[in-house]
Amino acid sequence: METWTEKLNDNPIDWLQESNPWTKYKTYSDLLGFNETNRELTEAKKELINDQNIINFANETKDWLTISATRNSDPKITYFKLKALAEFGLKYSDLGLQETVDKASEHIIENMFGVRGQTPERPKKGEKYQKPDLAADVWHISPCNSPLITTALMELGVKNDLVDRSIKELKNKWTNKEGWFCHFFFVDSQFKKLQIGCPIAGLQALEIFSKVPELKESEYARFAFEPIKFHKDYGKTLYYFGRSKKFWTFKYPFVWYNALYMADVLTRFDFLKNEPVVKELIDWILESQDSEGRFKPTSVFMNYKGWDFSNKKEASPWITFLCCRILKQYFG
Length: 332
Known about the structure:
Layout: H1 13-17, H2 21-31, H3 39-49, H4 52-61, H5 78-88, H6 97-104, E1 108-109, E2 112-113, E3 115-116, E4 139-140, H7 146-155, H8 161-172, H9 185-194, H10 199-209, H11 213-216, H12 219-234, H13 259-266, H14 276-288, H15 317-331
Antiparallel strand pairs: 1-2, 3-4
């Protein structure tokens, strides 16, 4: 059986090791499997936490949800930044991130981490729309943002009762294919018709379940996958989520529903190896590499201008690393 490196046109490992600090560190830890006592890994970690881009990014997370987001896919939302730092290899003890962790853990609702903002409600007939106070001290939980905070804290190495309770609560919300569904007025009519959960909520639940050994291949993970499988078979938009050109993009951070994010999560599960949607994602990645086994971003967030994954003209070390890790997870 071919290994993941043999699936690439050329092996980019050397190039990744010579790139930016976040890619170098994660290449050592995730692709090469260096342990924490390895000298090269510890030196790479020092380089990572001393990088000015990383320092600035960490400082931005301390401004935790000071106003409510007006849309869930806004890349400036603080929990997306915290999650990215965790994915780069930082821990809660690095760069004062404990302060951010404390703020993220301050609002707990039904054992889940809350985010600032009003729960969306249908406007009453005849009443004039009133813009919400974005700075109001009002918090809520929902299936497409609260799990992101849990994931970020887990990846940062936070181990406490709050994280444990949030994982248990999420598990309890995925005991069927409907799962944890927001039932907001603008999607509830389609839910009543289809009786299936939300694909982005399922994906975020799967990301957490993949990190917990007893949940990784569990029935809860299988239920969380059902909306994603249904969406592929459905063949059209589901709760505002599509599978068109915007879905098939090499784009980071993982702010919303796209193929790269999905591939990164789904390839962690043994029970999904033969699923058509997973094979489709793997084929797309293999067909998108250049002659050197590298990958370019095909869509970018302008808020991240200056980062390697926000330059569509050149191959991105970080995007290439992510694709390599996906292939390693799938092929071994």
